Amino acid sequence: MVFSSLIFIFAFLTLTLVLYYALPRKWRNGVLLVMSLVFYGWGEPLYIFLMLASVCAAFGLGFPIAKYRTSAPGKAKGFLVLSILLNLSALLFFKYAGFVMRNLNLLPFLTGKIPLFSDLALPIGISFYTFQIMSYSIDLYRGEIGVQKNIVSFGTYVALFPQLIAGPIVRYRDIEEQLGHRKESLEQFASGVKRFCAGVGKKALLGDGMAAAYRYFTGAGSFQPTALGAWMIMISFSLHIYYDFSGYSDMAIGLGRMFGFEFKENFNYPYVSDSITEFWRRWHISLSTWFREYVYFPLGGNRRGKGRQIFNLAVVWVLTGFWHGASWNFVIWGAYFFLLLVMEKRFLLKALGKVPRAFRHIYALLMIGIGWMIFAFENPAEGFAALGNLFGIGVSAAFLPSGLYETARYLPVMAVCIFGATPLPAKLWKKWKERSYLSPVLEPVAAMAVLALGTAYMTSATYSPFLYFRF
Amino acid sequence: MKNAKRAKDKQKKKPELSAVLTTVLFCLFTAGLFAAFLLFPDREYSENENRTLQTFPGWTASDHLDGTFGSEMNDYFADQFPMRNGWTAAKGIAELVAGKGENNGVLVGTNEQLAVYAFDACAGTEGYVPSTDGYSEKLVERECRALADMDEKLKKQGIPFCFLLAPRTIDVAASAFTYPDDGSRKLISDFYGRLPETVNAPEVIPLLREKYESGEYVAYRTDHHWTTLGAYYAYVEVMKSWGMEGEILPESAFTVSRTPNFYGTTWSKLGLPFVGPDVLELWETGDEDRYLAEDLDSGHVLPGGLYSRSFLEVKDKYAVFLDGTHNRLRITDSEGPGRETLLVAKDSFANCMIPFLARHFDIVVLNLSDGGDETNLSKYVEKYGCDRVLIVYGLENATTSYRLSGIR
After folding, report:
1. B20 shares its domain with B77
2. B residues 266-295 near A, CB within 8 Å?
3. Do the chains contact at A459 and B87, CB–CB below 8 Å?
């Protein structure tokens, strides 16, 4: 099930809320767990068992890790490694086996002799819940959290439908307390509703609009590539992925609040960044935090000399790229950011500090945009061709009249998207709220208007799945 | 003092009121629509969308395990969602207000002229690509080669051939839109440019465009087909191309009966109820009953002959011509045996044109849009001893389907 579907908002969410608040407090985690399993099993009725197996493995191995972590750290480490291996092997097999086999198959002496696993469908959300589960086992080993003795609570943590299939990646330690003792309130519920409505608006009204522009310009470009088309591909994809993904995170955070949970923010206006370093502090924060905490720091971070730091960064960024999908373009995309980040650390940030802010901003946006071009085209050759088109290489014309027409058509929505990607609208809204006596009435009405318009778009939309589903 | 205190109290209460109102409105909105969904009876068919709606899918374990049940439930909920048409229309209006100038790939032009302009174009061997005026030059090349081969083959047998490319609305009614028409012109000139001059292929699109611009009703505003008048002009061109000018029935030979309230496929796609209907015309000479149409697959004779008038009562009025889609039909004249047999391989554009041709020829009709062996024209020419071959095929299908390139 996806959040931006009628059945989710009107049937599933309504039923879940009624059950959640009608039943006694001690049953609430149980309600969430059961409904989350229904939510997951709706689209993945078989892989639900894979997720449950992962949950049980990490839950069971949590006890020996906790038991031995002070008395016999070596033993505890063994159990930790086992837990990680069990979890990771499911992710590696389902997500990467096809990719590895496809590439091995290219070797002449193996061609046609190995299974290709091409029918293997990727279990939804496996990249997200595997990382969540690992955060539990690792933090437990580090002694940062206590062992969870209640399988329902642990299952609720992993399967919690607001964040199950596309994040944010919630670390166990961040909601350890909330799992056992959370206190829902009307204010929190209402703020969750508003956040959810904002997410629906971002995804259904703006994100999908930019997706349509992206589809048009890639379609047109596949017949007659133009420079204008390539720029529009870059801009529309940049806006699409931001509104799609951050809208999804807003919905997740909003839904969490409706059930008394507070998740950490996942985005912080990434497109106002002045450098790539800053961008990655503002984009998909829960993922970069995870890699920093559980890969970069354990490898030694920046404490073992410059050479080692560069190596550590390379590992983190190739893995980050690969996490996004089992395809070479994602590896290239990760490596691309590794290079930029190393260059920024070495000299670029210093140099950028000397130029006016506008230039720094243009630099950052251009580099991010080029990154998205690598990201968007699964076939790297097509991605590089589209990058060339940006600068007039390999185009049939600078623009076509129909391309100009389409650009003009999307301009108003694009302008709204660009404006909305800055903190300005939120600031203006806050100012208005403080001044206006009508805001307690108008704000809820506005939230409902966005939800109603989103409902209109969802009703009318042909299927439009979230981009981050299969990652 | 009092006022200041009251204002302070008010400010204190502010967040609370907002929270209560947000919660109440949200619960009313979601639970209210859910209740309406549960209470309203299911509908089985949507006239607006021209399709059957998903009804409650029965639950079986195997359906559930392969995900069918979940996806059918999603469809069921969306299809039976309360006020579905109202929501769709609201989205369409929002798109127009947002300055997008179109909805669901349909442009809204002057005089409420509608035209589909976004298609899924064939892209070589790689499937389909969403496109407005892009198309695969390779596909056009293959189609033209297939047509040239067909022409050569028939020439050897002494069988006259004609290929007629039917326009999309956007090609004919270009003047109603601000959308640039260079893509349309390029596609048309590319098509005829690749077709050898020896192939008899009268260009009817520029003619229809001219007629449209002079105010003639050659293209529906709400449907993707040409009107009966448009089809008449095409019929005239075909007859001329075979040197049969003398036999062409003049417009004055027909009495025209008009059926108002025709809302076509483009209207359904657009989903905006305020766009007004078209008029569907039947051009009759009064002796239509003599022509028999037999479905070659079922062996049934169509009860209405050339016109199945019961369709005039429903939304899908265009199906009045030849009873909608039949893959193989044979049309004969009960009073005039011994006529030439014409093979018409076609898509739905030919449906309203065939009644004109039926006055001159017995006709074997092959629907090219289905997946069967109807592309094997040679087989049917031989089987029915056809004396002439006509292909009527829309430009939309020519760029969005591989079928034409497979004729032999």
Report:
1. no
2. 271
3. yes
CA distance B212 to B206: 10
Statement to judge: residues B5 and B69 lie in one domain: no
Residue B110 placed within a domain: no
Chain centre distance of CA B157: 34
Judgement on whether residues B19 and B156 belong to the same structural domain of the protein: no
Q: Among B21, B137, B271, select the one facing A460 at the smallest CB separation.
A: B271
Q: Which residues of A touch B39 (CB under 8 A)?
A: none
Among A411, A387, A407, CA closest to A399? A407
What predicted TM-score, i.e. pTM, was given to this entire model?
0.90
Regarding whether B188 and B73 lie in a shared domain, the answer is no
Angle between helices B2-39 and A439-460 (to 10 degrees): 20
Clarify whether residues B189 and B60 are in a common domain: no
Regarding whether B35 and B59 lie in a shared domain, the answer is no
How many structural domains is chain B composed of? 3
Interface touch B99/A413, C-beta < 8 Å: yes
Q: pLDDT of chain A along its 471 residues, tens only?
A: 888 889 999 999 999 999 999 999 999 999 999 999 999 988 778 889 999 999 999 999 999 999 999 999 999 999 999 999 999 999 999 888 888 888 888 888 887 777 877 777 788 889 999 999 999 999 999 999 999 999 999 999 999 999 988 879 999 999 999 998 899 999 999 999 999 999 999 999 999 999 999 999 998 888 889 999 999 999 999 999 999 999 999 999 999 999 999 999 999 999 999 999 999 999 999 999 999 999 999 999 889 888 999 999 999 999 999 999 889 999 999 999 999 999 999 999 999 999 999 999 999 999 999 999 999 999 999 999 999 999 999 998 999 999 999 999 999 999 999 999 999 999 999 999 888 888 889 999 999 999 999 999 998 874 333 334 334
CA quadruple A285, A268, A230, B270: dihedral, nearest 10: 110
Burial degree of B203 (CB within 10 A; 0-12, 13-18, 19+): middle
Residues B123 and B20 in one domain: no
> Could you list the residue range(s) of the whole structural domain that residue B27 is in?
1-39
Co-location of B64 and B209 in the same domain: no
**Given CA atoms A191, A196, A197, A199 in this order, what sign does their dihedral have?**
positive
Catalytic annotation present for A324: yes
Could you tell me if B114 and B266 are in contact, meaning their C-beta atoms sit under 8 angstroms apart? yes
Give a yes or no: residue B21 inside a domain.
yes
Using a CB-CB cut-off of 8 Å, the residues of chain B touching A220 are 131-134
The answer to whether the CB atoms of A11 and B15 lie below 8 A apart is: no
Enter the ipTM.
0.90
Contacts of B135 in chain A (CB under 8 A): 223
CA-to-CA distance for A242 and A422, rounded, in angstroms? 12
| A413 contacts B29? CB cut-off 8 A | no
Measured from the Cβ of residue A322, the count of other Cβ atoms closer than 10 Å reads 18
- Secondary structure (3-state) at B248: coil
Closest CA to B369 of B341, B385, B391, B354: B391
DSSP character at residue A201: I
Q: Is residue B104 in some structural domain?
A: no
Q: Is residue B99 part of a domain?
A: no
Residue B325 vs residues A54, B74, B261: alpha-carbon distances, Å: 53, 30, 22
